[in-house]
Each structure stands twice: as C-alpha cells, then as structure tokens.
C-alpha cells in the first residue's frame, strides 16, 4: 500500500488535469459549453452521464497537457463517498482537480479506490499515485484517517490465517499502545483459563504459535464517558469438531473481521482525541481441531458465571464474545459496541453489503442508522425479539450456544450475546460480513469495512 497521505493535497494552483463532474440531468447544458472536438470525443466514448462512467476529452484551456476528464455522477449537488472512486482506479497517475466545486465526500473514495493488497505478489503493481487537489485543506486529515481505517480492516482481513493469528492481532494492538500511549493488557495461559474460560476453551486446541489470548487496551481520561469497543478475533474457524465442509472454510481467514473493525475504530477514536475513556477488547483465538478441542455437549464456565451447553462447536464466536462483553460491562461503560462476523443467517437476511445491527435502545439504533446513511455506510436493524430466547434453552445448563430452531439465527445469536451484557448498559452489536464478494467502485473484492464509519460518525456526534 503506497503512502495514502499524499493522495489528497491542498490546491495551491498546481498544474492539474481538469475533472468535470456531470449528472444526466445536467449533461445537455454541459455539452452546450463545449467545443466541437470536445463534443465529438464525448460522442465517440458513448458517454451518457451515467454514474461511474467517464470520457477523456481535449482540454480547451491548455492547462493539463491537452486533455481533461468528464465523469458521470448520480447527482452533482450531493456527491457520495464513492462517486469518484472509479476515476481513482482507472485514470493515469498524475494530479487532478475538480472544476466548478470541491470533491467533498468523494475524497474518501478517491483514497480507498487506490487500495491494493500486494503482500504476496512477486511483482507488485508500480503505477504512481493519482493525487486529488482540494481547496478545503482542513478536511484532508479527517478523510485520510477514515480511508486508512478502512484499508487497515482490508489489510488485516485479506492476510491469510498463518500470518494473521492471535499473536499478529496482539501486535496490532501493541502498535496502537505505542502510537497513542495507551495502556495494554494481554491475558494468556492459566490466567486466561481462569479469567476468560470460554475464550480459553475455544482456542485451546490451536498450536502454541496460535495460542488464545484476551487483548485489552485502555486510553483516554478516566473522567470522560467510558466506551467499550469489542471485536471477535477468530483468526481461523475450522468449525471445531463440528467441522465445516471445505467450501465453508475458504473464507474463514476473515472470521477475525470483527477484531479488525474494532482495532480500526479504536485508532480513529484515539487519532481524533475523542473525549472518551476507550476500552478495546479483542478475544483472539483459532477454532482448531485436536484431542483437547471442546466438544458438542460440553458445558463451559463463563466469566459471568453463566454455564453454557455446547450445541455446536461452530458457534464459537458468541462464546468468546460472551466473556469479552462481560469484561467490558464490569467497567460500567456508557456504551458498548461490538463487531463480529457472527452468523450466516445475517447474510441470508440482508446480504453481504449491509451489516445487521442489533441494539437495546431505539435512540442508539436511530443514531447509527442515520450516521450510516449519511456516510454511505448503510446498516439494517434486526430485532432482539424476546420470544426467541426460548430457542437458547438448555436442559442441563443456563443457556445453549446454538439455537434449537432453524429460524432467526442472527437474532438468536444476538440474544445469546445480550445475556452477557449487564442490564441497563447501552449496547450495539454489528453482525458484519467484513468481505466484499464482488468489486464496486473504490471497494475491491476481498476484506472490507462494513459498519465502521457508521459507528465512528455516531460516536463523534455523541461525544465530540
């Protein structure tokens, strides 16, 4: 990944290629102001003003080596985060300037559109950067921080499990600890078994190099409102003894996507110096298979004192989150937000683009949904329906980790987590996919941040 700080620069009158943004409604008027050669070039490109389409035309003012860009957007009066991302992907390296207005929200997609994951390529791409100029330099740092948070999620999720195990998640937290002078606490071994028994049980079958641990980081003034951010860190999920089929394991390097979101959100909070007392928690494990793996039918202890019967070892994410949410609640936070690649049922319900959102409070849901809509990071709320708690009943323990019904799998999983969040605490749960199965402008196929910016902008509005 190249230096993304250089991709948006203040406009000081540098020589730059002109970008003209038009929408379908304004195309006819725009064409009237062009020369005959320019209109001929647009016609030859069959450019209609459709979003994400563009054409190269001769530049009448001679300011940009003889050519300019005309690009289609849905609405020139309301630019989205991704409306110029295709240009950032397709245009040659160079410096560009939007004519007739500022790029605004589109700066995010301009940076994110130049992302590539090249860690394992013997011949990485060598294209130079496409730099976008802006007359609003005060927005550069904020936009760059958000784009870098997105790309951090992508990098972590795209990295194979052998190189992104619990130790590597710990290293990412160590980087935050050093960069922002945060307090860090890592719990492993016998102490993990004692203090976070479900995290230990899920991860104990992994090799020593991928041994389980609880990663905690605290930052900020203790007098400020306490906010806990929790991320599911299952670095690979075989399914355990309820083993997944081969096809079901292909994407399981992404099962730590919740941890990637939590780490990225923590970095946004600290880099912006948001006035909160941050508590980051990442239970990091590999759900492996060995003679000491936890079994279907076992009853696990939990940090909360709730006994859990194991109906399915492939429902392991909710187990480690149960211990983490219990720990988060002990600090009596003003708000807990967790991210997890938790259920296939959420993907069946809302597809890959929309994180399923669960909250206890309507006001919190409304704030998150509104922030997601405003920032082009949409979410969709699903119910914490009390009637479905009966699906988690156990004959021999306080609760079962796998629902007894094939219905409402995402809600059932969220209700399991709800049991471990102390009563009276505001809590939001994102069941996110953390993966993009098909590329979109600015969003290549692979790991991606879904729900991250919705959460960040809600936090900024609530606490800034």
TrEMBL record:
Write out the GO biological process terms: proteolysis
Q: Reply yes or no: does the keyword Glycoprotein apply.
A: no
**Keywords attached to this entry:** Aminopeptidase, Hydrolase, Manganese, Protease
For whether the record's keyword set contains Transmembrane helix, the answer is no
Q: What GO molecular functions are on record for this protein?
A: manganese ion binding; metalloaminopeptidase activity
- CDD domains according to UniProt: Peptidase_M17
Gene3D superfamilies xref list = Leucine Aminopeptidase, subunit E, domain 1 (3.40.220.10), Zn peptidases (3.40.630.10)
Q: Which GO terms describe its cellular component?
A: cytoplasm
Please list the residue ranges annotated as the Cytosol aminopeptidase domain.
312-319
Instruction: Supply the PANTHER family for this chain.
Output: LEUCINE AMINOPEPTIDASE-RELATED (PTHR11963), PEPTIDASE B (PTHR11963:SF20)
Task: Tell me its family.
Answer: Belongs to the peptidase M17 family.
* Name this protein carries in UniProt: Cytosol aminopeptidase
Q: Organism source for this protein?
A: Novosphingobium barchaimii LL02
């Amino acid at each position: 990944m190249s230096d993304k700080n250089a991709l948006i620069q203040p406009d000081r009158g540098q020589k730059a290629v002109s970008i003209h943004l038009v929408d379908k409604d304004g195309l006819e008027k725009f064409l009237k102001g062009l020369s005959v050669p320019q209109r001929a070039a647009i016609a030859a490109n069959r450019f209609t003003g459709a979003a994400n389409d563009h054409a190269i035309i001769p530049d009448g003012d001679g300011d940009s080596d003889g050519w300019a860009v005309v690009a289609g957007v849905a609405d020139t009066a309301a630019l989205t985060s991704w409306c110029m991302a295709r240009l950032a992907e397709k245009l040659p390296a160079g410096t560009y300037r939007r004519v007739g207005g500022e790029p605004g929200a589109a700066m995010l997609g301009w940076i994110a559109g130049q992302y590539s994951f090249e860690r394992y390529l013997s011949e990485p791409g060598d294209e130079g950067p496409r730099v976008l100029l802006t007359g609003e330099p005060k927005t550069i740092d904020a936009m760059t921080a958000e784009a870098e948070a997105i790309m951090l999620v992508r990098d972590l999720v795209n990295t194979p499990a052998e190189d992104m195990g619990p130790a590597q998640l710990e290293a990412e937290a160590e980087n935050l600890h050093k960069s922002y002078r945060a307090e860090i606490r890592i719990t492993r071994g016998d102490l993990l078994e004692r203090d976070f028994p479900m995290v230990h049980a899920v991860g104990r079958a992994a090799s020593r190099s991928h041994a389980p641990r609880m990663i905690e980081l605290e930052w900020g003034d203790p007098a400020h409102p306490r906010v806990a951010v929790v991320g599911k860190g299952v670095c690979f999920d075989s399914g355990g003894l309820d083993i997944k089929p081969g096809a079901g394991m292909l994407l399981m390097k992404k099962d730590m996507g919740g941890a990637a979101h939590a780490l990225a959100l923590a970095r946004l909070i600290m880099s912006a110096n948001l006035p909160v007392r941050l508590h980051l928690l990442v239970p990091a494990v590999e759900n492996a298979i060995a003679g000491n793996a936890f079994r279907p039918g076992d009853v696990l202890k939990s940090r909360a004192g709730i006994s859990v019967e194991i109906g399915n070892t492939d429902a392991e994410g909710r187990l480690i989150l149960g211990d983490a949410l219990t720990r988060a609640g002990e600090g009596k936070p003003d708000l807990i937000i967790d991210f997890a690649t938790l259920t296939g049922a959420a993907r069946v319900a809302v597809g890959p683009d929309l994180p399923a959102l669960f909250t206890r409070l309507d006001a919190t849901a409304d704030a998150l949904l509104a922030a997601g809509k405003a920032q082009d990071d949409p979410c969709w709320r699903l119910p914490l329906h009390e009637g479905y708690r009966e699906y988690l009943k156990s004959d021999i323990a306080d609760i079962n980790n796998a629902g007894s019904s094939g219905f409402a799998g995402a809600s059932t999983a969220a209700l399991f987590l709800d049991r471990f969040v102390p009563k009276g605490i505001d809590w939001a749960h994102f069941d996110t996919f953390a993966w993009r199965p098909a590329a979109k402008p600015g969003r290549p196929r692979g790991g991606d941040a879904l729900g991250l910016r919705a959460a960040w902008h809600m936090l900024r509005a609530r606490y800034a």
